[in-house]
Amino acid sequence: MKPSVLTRYRVMAxxxxxxxxxxxxxxxxxxxxxxxxxxxxxVSQIHGVLFIIYLVFxxxxxxxxxxxxxxxxxxxxxxxxxxxxxxxxxxxxxxxxPRLQDGTPQPVKV
Length: 110
Description:
Distance between the termini: 18 Å
Shape: elongated
Number of strands: 0
Largest sheet: none
Helix content: over 70%
Mean pLDDT: 91
Low-confidence stretches: none
Strand content: under 5%
Order of helices and strands: HHHH
Number of helices: 4
Radius of gyration: 16 Å
C-alpha cells in the first residue's frame, strides 16, 4: 500500500471532524440563539461534500488494508460522530503505519 492512501485518509478525517464540530457550533447558534441561519446552511453543505470524500478515501484505505466489515463500518461512521474521527484516525494510523515503513507488502494479521 502506498503512503499516499493513508495521507489522503488522514487529511479527510481531520477536515471532516473539524467541519462537523463547526457545524455543531452553528446548529447551537441557529437553534439556541436564533442566529446564523445562512452560515449553518453553508457549513452543512461543505461538511456533506467533505464527508462523501471521507467515505471514499476511508473505504479505499479499508479495502487495501483488508479490514473486516465491522472495522470498516466503524471507521466510516466515525465521520458522523463529533470528535470520533480524531480518535479513530489515531488508531488507524497506529495500525497502518508499520506496514508502510519499508515499502514491501506485509501479510495481513487475522
